[in-house]
Amino acid sequence: MTIDKQREAILKYGRKMLTSQLTTGAGGNLSICDRTSGRVAISPSGIEYFDMKPEDVVITDLNGQVLEGKYKPSSELGFHLALYRERQDVNAVVHTHSVYATTMACLGWEIPAVHYLVGFSGYKVPVAPYATFGTDELAQNVAKGIGAYNAVLLANHGLVAVGSDIGRAFNTAEEIELVARIYYQTKAVGEPVILPDQEMERVLAKFATYGQSPKDTDHV
């Protein structure tokens, strides 16, 4: 993906975060890493997505040095870079302040396998310890807290989702918000039934080959 395409994708999914009610205003942030060039396209700090232009998206290297762009990169650049360093399978990061996932984060509750769609993250969604936004401590907490999962709750803050591309990272953020809402609502009524690990093993195996091909039009 060229830098121009990366910048367009940041705008597209940044605006989609708003229309999908995964964040508000200029909240949250997202990035794409080009492993070949070692460049990262990341949303700028404090600019609302519908006011943003492609050239406003900041380009840095994997050390955080700004290569292109007139604005400061997101204040959370640190944990984006930490994730890229920690996980070679990750090429995109989406950070949201979605209501139900953030509610779980503020309670300090992991999201268990209350619904099989938690498989977008893995067996569950873990919680990373709280640290002030934009700090090295938060970056370390996120990179360590996510482990091998594709999503992690940031205590008293929000959600981070990762993927091999921006579409997959965004889908994970969206599906985990749905599961967080289901978990919240089931906890409000009673005690939810949690799927056992054996079932989640089957789910994750099916997710590994999930997707459409010319002969496969199944839907989750």
Automatic annotation (TrEMBL):
<dbReference type="GO" id="GO:0019323">
    <property type="term" value="P:pentose catabolic process"/>
</dbReference>
<dbReference type="GO" id="GO:0046872">
    <property type="term" value="F:metal ion binding"/>
</dbReference>
<keyword id="KW-0456">Lyase</keyword>
<dbReference type="InterPro" id="IPR050197">
    <property type="entry name" value="Aldolase_class_II_sugar_metab"/>
</dbReference>
<dbReference type="GO" id="GO:0005829">
    <property type="term" value="C:cytosol"/>
</dbReference>
<dbReference type="GO" id="GO:0016832">
    <property type="term" value="F:aldehyde-lyase activity"/>
</dbReference>
<dbReference type="InterPro" id="IPR001303">
    <property type="entry name" value="Aldolase_II/adducin_N"/>
</dbReference>
<keyword id="KW-0479">Metal-binding</keyword>
<dbReference type="Pfam" id="PF00596">
    <property type="entry name" value="Aldolase_II"/>
</dbReference>
<protein>
    <submittedName>
        <fullName>D-ribulose-1-phosphate/L-fuculose-1-phosphate aldolase</fullName>
    </submittedName>
</protein>
<dbReference type="InterPro" id="IPR036409">
    <property type="entry name" value="Aldolase_II/adducin_N_sf"/>
</dbReference>
<feature type="domain" description="Class II aldolase/adducin N-terminal">
    <location>
        <begin position="8"/>
        <end position="184"/>
    </location>
</feature>
